[in-house]
Amino acid sequence: MSDFPKLLLGSPSSLPVVLSTKHNSPSFFPSFFSSLLHSFFFFVPYLFLCFKLPYKRLKTKMVALVSQESVVALVSRTGRELQRYRKGRRQVVGCIPYRYKIGEKTSMDGDELEVLVISSQNKKGKGMLFPKGGWELDESKKEAAMRETIEEAGVRGIVGGKLGKWSFKSKTHDTFYEGYMFPLLVQEQLEFWPEKNVREREWMSVTEAREACQHWWMKEALDRLVNRLSGQKLGREKQVLSSLNCIGDARSAL
Hints:
Helix content is about 45%, strand content about 25%. By secondary structure, it is of the alpha+beta class. The longest helix is centred in the first third of the chain and has 40 residues, at about 30-65. Residues about 5-25, about 55-70 and about 105-110 have low confidence and may be disordered.
């Protein structure tokens, strides 16, 4: 029987023999360093994995955060903890989403302006309006306008300069609000958005939207948008005519 089984069996004479054998054996130091070397090669890959896996997880989270910038949350903001007030009046912002539909040539360039209107929440078919909502402390006016438009109308695009500021009285809460409206040139229309199940959306002509809109101050904002776009169109036409005149003068000089 070897020394090791004797030690396990508790033989009175085995302990001194084993200890004496290990300490007096010429192979003690080589076996000790061999065990140490084996332990080293075992623990180094383990330590490597311990440090590498958290790094991989962190890297994955960073990639996920970057990719989520283009993802639309399917839940609207709720609560008024971050709501802005000015002199006791709640601050609201909104957008008039618009696009140019290529259709019959009803104008000089063949473009027809359309705007997107939505129904009131849970009141489908009872008066239309443009998307708007509370301006909160952690965002700019344009950011709030874009957020509200995505949440309520399910579109996003380029937000233009402010159309104006209005003071109006809420019919629901019997209090005065201050509202800011912006134009939004639609670039993407989403299939799913936070308030899809509680609102309807519909593209209308300017005339139809003006008749359907239930808020006077939104109608004024719509008129300002039309005037602005008409002015921009007129400016482009003048530039084209000026360029053509310059070309004609240059040919005459030749």
